[in-house]
Amino acid sequence: MLLAVSSCDDSLTEINENPNGVDPNSANPNLVMPTVMSGVANRYVKLGYGRIAGVVQHTQEDAWKDGFNDYNWTEEDDEWKEWYGYLRNNNLLYNRSVELNYKFQEGVALTMRAFIFGTISDLWGDAPYTNALKGDAGEMLPAFDSQEVIYKGIIEDLKAAAAIFGTTENERDAAFYDIYFNGNTQKWQKFANTLLLRYYMRISSKLPDVAKAGIESVYTSGIYMKDASDDAVMDFIGTDANNSWPNAVAYDVSESNWRRRRPAATLINNLVANSDPRLKVWFQPVHVRWVSDPALATGMDEFIRKDGVIQTGIKSLTQMELKAGIAAGHKYTRHFNPTKYKPSHPDLFNGPLNTSEYVGIPAGMTDPTYYNENPTTGQQVQNQHASQLSYTYQGVKGGILKARLASASETSFILAEAAQKGWAAGNAETHYNNAIKQSLQTWGVADQYDAFLKSVAYKGTQAQIIEQKWVASWTMATEAWFDYRRTGLPALVPGVAPTSRALPLRFIYSNNELNNNGASVRSAIEKLEETSFSGVRKKNSQWSKPWLVQGTGKPW
C-alpha cells in the first residue's frame, strides 16, 4: 500500500487535469462567444415560440396543455440554472476579452450580459446581480438586487457596449464565431441601442424621466435597427435536436409536439379580420371545413365529405392523408344543419361551429381537443376542424426558421409609442408604418404592405401600437408578454380553465435557490406584491407583482 501511494504521488496532479477541458486562464474569447450566443438564442426562442406564446395567446396546445394554456406553473429550477449558466460562460468571455484587450469581444460580452440579466429580471423580478458570478471569490450566497438596480445596470452595460462598437472596426477574425452579425460592429451597435430602447420603455412607468431622456438620446443618435436585415437572429444548424428549430419533426417521430401546438383564436381572428398577409405564412387552413347546410336531415354529418361526396365509414383521416389529398386538389368538408345541430359535449364545447377557413383554438379551454366538434378527441389523430401551424415549422432550419432576439420592427414600435407619449422621438405614425413594413419584410410579404396598411391605418392610440406589436412579436412572444404586463394591452381575456383566471406576471423562484440561498430569496419574495390571484403560493406566485408593475395599476 505504501509503495502504491508513493508511486502515485508524483503524477497525481497530472492525472486530475482534464486534457479535453478549457483552461479559463488561456481561453480564446472567440471560442467562448458562440457558446454564449447559441445558448441564449435557443433558450429565448423556446420561450417566445413555446409557453409564453400560450400566455399571450399566439398559440394554444390541445393536449398536455396545463403549463402552456393554463399557466399551471411550478418552480423554475431548470430555467434559472440555464440563464445563470449562460452568464457564467459570458463572464469568462468578458474577463478574457478585457485581459487580452479584445474590444469587439468585450462589447459582445457586455451586450450579452445585459440581455441575459435583463431576461432574468423580466422573468422573475429581483435576482442576484451585483454579487452574482463571484463563487470563485467565495461569494456563494449572493444577495438579490432589486429590479431597479438591475435595469439601471444593464442600461449602463449597453451604453458601454454601444460606445465600444462605435469606435471599433469590423472584427474580421471573429466573423466565423459571431453567429448573429458575422463580426459587423455597426450591427452590434444597432443591437445594443435597440436593447436600450427596449429597457428604457420597460421602465417607463416606474422611471419615466429616465426612460424619456434615454429614448430621446438613442433616437437622436440615429443608430438603431431600421431594416429587417438588421435583426438580431440566429440561424439553426439542423444536425440534432439541440441545434434545430424547436419541435422539428425530424427529432419527433410521432410529430406530437408539432401537431398539438395550434394557433390561438385570439391571434387568428385578428389576422383574418385585417386580411393580414402573415396569416398564410404562419398557419394553415383547416383540413376539413364545416359547411352550413339547412337541407341536411341530421344535425351534422357523421362522416367526412371528399369533394362533396360522403366517405361512408370515414369520420377522420390522418394528417398525412389529408395533406396528400389537399395537395392533389381535393376538398374535405363536413355539413351541419344550423337549425338541428346540438353540441355533442356541451360541457366542453357548446358551439357554435366555426365555419371559417382559418380556425384557432380559444384560450384556456377546459379540454381543447373537443373544440369545433373534433371527432378524434383525446389526441386520437388530430383536430381536423382547427388550423395547424404552417408545415414550415416542421423543419429543422432555413428560411423563416430563426431565433430572433430583437428586430427593426420592435424598434419602430417602441419609437412610435414614445412619440405617441409626446416624447421627442419623431413622428408616431411614421414609426408605426415602418414597424409594420419591417415585420412584413421579415416574413417575406413586404409586397403586400400598401394593401395591408389600409386595414390597420394608424389611429393615434397606444392600444393600436401595442396590438400590432403583439402580432409582430410572433416567435418572440416574451416581448408581447412584458408589454402586456406593463400596459394591460392587448386586452387579452383569460380562459375558463381553473388555473387560467388571469394572465401570469412572472416566473416562480426555483426550489434549488430556495434550498441553498434561502435568506436572499425570501428577502426578494417579501418585496413581491401578493394579488387576489396569487393563491396558495402567496407572494412567490406567477400572479404576484414585481417592482416593475407595482403601483401602476397594470395589467389588472
TrEMBL record:
Instruction: Spell out the InterPro entries in the cross-references.
Output: SusD-like_2, TPR-like_helical_dom_sf
Looking up SUPFAM superfamilies in the UniProt record yields: TPR-like
Which superkingdom? Answer: Bacteria
Q: Which Pfam families does the record cross-reference, listed alphabetically?
A: SusD-like_2
What is the official name of this protein in its record?
Starch-binding associating with outer membrane
Q: Which organism is it from?
A: Dyadobacter linearis
